[in-house]
Structure formats: structure tokens, C-alpha cells
């Protein structure tokens, strides 16, 4: 099983890579948390790189498509995690780029009619999927997808509104960088963690279920 470190938009210190053979840069939850080409080049010198992408605005879609195209042609990335349906069409043109369905996209794909979904996955060349839920993993494996298991936190909800900077803008000051806020409420059995624009729970296990192809661990400060 491959082990990957989720590093966000920045290059982690070399010591953080011990025990990992792949880097997952970017974010499934915020279009602003993407590394630039210089950072991707620095990451690629250390290990193969997967770029994680989120749901996107129109402006974000154009910017992310351009970044992926440039990075792939320079051999800086070999895989992209996709959460926005609109990103699939431009990426279809990049022959040889591996695609994985992100956790948001998986929620929709897993409840669609299986026959249609399998044809859709084949058409766009999606061969793997990201998850932190065991039942979801089984549904995705039944579609013929390789599974990447994310730990140690589980996805609950995401917003396009930035709770840290209190706006919907496509640009930001990265005030969420390295921060994780613990949110408690008497109606919640467990506290939530607010990271970037996503709410997480400590439900996912670092020990993945059987049949997982990759373990993705979120790095500290990312």
C-alpha cells in the first residue's frame, strides 16, 4: 500500500516525508490553497505529486485548468483529485494524466445509477477515488475504483464561504494556514474541526480497511 502525505499549498520540511512515497499537494476544499509551479517543482524533486482540487468558481476553474496543464506538461504532477464536475472536460485532453474522484464528487457518484456511473468513469478516465468512510469505500470499490483512504479526520461538510476571512472571494490572505479550530456544541456527540473551509470529525482511522491502495495522511500545519 502506498503512503502519501497531504501537504497543502506549501512544501513541507524534508523530515516530514519520512515513511511517505508520494505527496498530495493542494486542497479538496479550498480553491485558493493550491501550490504554484515553483512549489510543485520543489515537491516533485522529492517524490511523485498528486494535485488535489476543490469545487471551483468560474474564475477558479480557468486558473486551476491552466495550472494543471502547465504542471502536467512539465512533468511536475502525474495525478489530479477532482471534485468539480466542470474540471473533468478540460482534463480529458491531457492524455496520461491519472484522475481520482475527490470526496465531494464521490458522494454524488456513489448514489448515481451504477451502470451510468461506470460508463462515466470510463469516459473521463477516472480510476481511483478518495474517501474516509468504510461504507463509501465499499460502494466505490464496487464501481471498480482503487481507493485512497484519508486520515486521521473524516469529512462532514464544506462551504464556499471562508469562515476565517469571512468572504467568498477567490483570493485570500491564507489566514487559515496551519490553523484548526475545535468547535463544540451540546447537540454534537463529538467536536468538529474547522480546517480551511471544511468541517471534519475525528472518525477516520489511520489504520485503513482492507483492500485500500493508498493511505493519505494530513501533515501537521497543512
Write the layout of secondary structure elements.
Layout: E1 2-8, E2 22-26, H1 37-44, E3 49-52, H2 58-73, E4 79-82, H3 85-91, E5 98-101, H4 103-109, H5 114-124, E6 126-131, H6 134-142, E7 146-151, E8 154-158, E9 181-183, E10 192-195, E11 198-201, E12 214-218
Parallel strand pairs: 1-2, 1-12, 2-3, 3-4, 4-5, 5-6, 6-7, 7-12
Antiparallel strand pairs: 8-11, 9-10, 10-11
Helix pairs in contact: 2-3
What order do the strands of the largest sheet run in, or round the barrel if closed?
1-2-3-4-5-6-7-12
Work out the helix count: 6
Molecular shape: globular
**N-to-C SSE string, H for helix and E for strand:** EEHEHEHEHHEHEEEEEE
Main sheet summary: 8 strands, parallel, barrel
- What share of residues are in beta strands? 25-35%
**Radius of gyration, whole Å:** 17 Å
Low-confidence stretches: none
Structure class: alpha/beta
Report the helical percentage: 25-40%
Any idea what the CATH superfamily is called?
Answer: Phosphoenolpyruvate-binding domains
Distance between the first and last residues' Cα: 23 Å
Amino acid at each position: 500500500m502506498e503512503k502519501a502525505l497531504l501537504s497543502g499549498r506549501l512544501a513541507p520540511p524534508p523530515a516530514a516525508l519520512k515513511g511517505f512515497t508520494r505527496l498530495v499537494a493542494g486542497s479538496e476544499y479550498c480553491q485558493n490553497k493550491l501550490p504554484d509551479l515553483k512549489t510543485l517543482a520543489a515537491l516533485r524533486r522529492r517524490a511523485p505529486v498528486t494535485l488535489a482540487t476543490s469545487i471551483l468558481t468560474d474564475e477558479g476553474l480557468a486558473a486551476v485548468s491552466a495550472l494543471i496543464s502547465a504542471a502536467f506538461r512539465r512533468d511536475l504532477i502525474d495525478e489530479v483529485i477532482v471534485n468539480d464536475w466542470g474540471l473533468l472536460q478540460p482534463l480529458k485532453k491531457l492524455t496520461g494524466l491519472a484522475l481520482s474522484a475527490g470526496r465531494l464528487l464521490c458522494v454524488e457518484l456513489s448514489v448515481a445509477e451504477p451502470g451510468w456511473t461506470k460508463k462515466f468513469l470510463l469516459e473521463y478516465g477516472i480510476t481511483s477515488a478518495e474517501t474516509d468512510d468504510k461504507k463509501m469505500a465499499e460502494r466505490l470499490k464496487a464501481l471498480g475504483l482503487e481507493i485512497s483512504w484519508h486520515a486521521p479526520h473524516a469529512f462532514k461538510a464544506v462551504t464556499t464561504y471562508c469562515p476565517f476571512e469571512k468572504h467568498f472571494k477567490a483570493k485570500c490572505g491564507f489566514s487559515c494556514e496551519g490553523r484548526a479550530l475545535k468547535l463544540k456544541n451540546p447537540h454534537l456527540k463529538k467536536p468538529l474541526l474547522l480546517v480551511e473551509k471544511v468541517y471534519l470529525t475525528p472518525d477516520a482511522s489511520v489504520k485503513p480497511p482492507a483492500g485500500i491502495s493508498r493511505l493519505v495522511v494530513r501533515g501537521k500545519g497543512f
